[in-house]
Design goal:
mainly beta; 11 strands; Immunoglobulin-like
Amino acid sequence: MLRPALFLLGSLILGISACETPHDEVYEEPITSLFAILTPDTGNAVILQYLDRDGQGGRPAMVNSGLLKPETTYQCQLQINTLGKHLIDSTSVTQHPELHQVFFLPQNGLQISTAYSDLDANGLPVGFHSTITTGSPSNGELLLIIKHLPNKRAVGVAQGDLTNAAGKTDLEVGFAIRISGS
């Protein structure tokens, strides 16, 4: 009678210890929606939206475009969400800023520069809050890439250069942008 009880107790202890997750391991939920809210000093905010309700591999994601004013500074705030059974206000990306960095890469002649406005606990850039400054009128794409476990101390990475960042890409989305005075 004692053997079944010891077996049950051993199985219970093994089951509990097997469920523990190491502190450094973070479960990554797929990012299914992202809002980039660009607020100028004067005028209306521009909201860039990425929405992929069924996650990667299903139907194509919905991505909108944006019209920005030339020679204007915008405060950019990212809202990153996971849509599942319930809307989660943020993912493990925003809950663990030290493990992530957002890169803003203008493509095809788009006249935009970015600067990080937020830092993680180690004093390194994150990108959930940034300043985006437009230049002269132009058209192109703003490529937004969220990296998991980038090498934030590598050359150029803290300045937004993706070249030496390494890490895993959690999200890559391109927004068609037009910079125009009209």
